[in-house]
Design a protein that fits this description.
With 90 residues, this protein is of the alpha+beta class. It has helices at residues 9-18, 45-53, 61-85, and strands spanning 3-6, 23-30, 33-39. The termini are far apart.
Length: 90
């Protein structure tokens, strides 16, 4: 399945809040860095990213706040899971 990946938290929040691409998972790519992975079967991720960057991706504030909480939780889980598997913790 095609995927769209981004390390940009604000973009990930907007994609999730607007329901533009289905969120799949969060992957740790560096010690304190994650990548947000979305299903992108129609390869429209870069177009939606451009829409976001140009300020044309409109999402209700209540959806943004809910998605922000959700994405931060997924991000924390991805970082913590990797730390635990590698035998070190905060």
């Amino acid at each position: 399945m095609a995927e769209f990946r981004t390390e940009r938290l604000p973009l990930a929040i907007a994609l999730h809040a607007g329901g533009r691409l289905p969120f799949m998972r969060c992957e740790r790519v560096a010690p304190d860095h994650v990548e947000f992975v979305f299903a992108d079967p129609e390869s429209k991720g870069t177009d939606v990213e451009l829409e976001f960057d140009s300020g044309r991706l409109m999402v209700a504030a209540s959806e943004i706040f809910a998605s922000q909480k959700y994405m931060r939780r997924r991000m924390s889980e991805a970082l913590e899971n990797r730390r635990t598997r590698n035998g070190y913790s905060r």
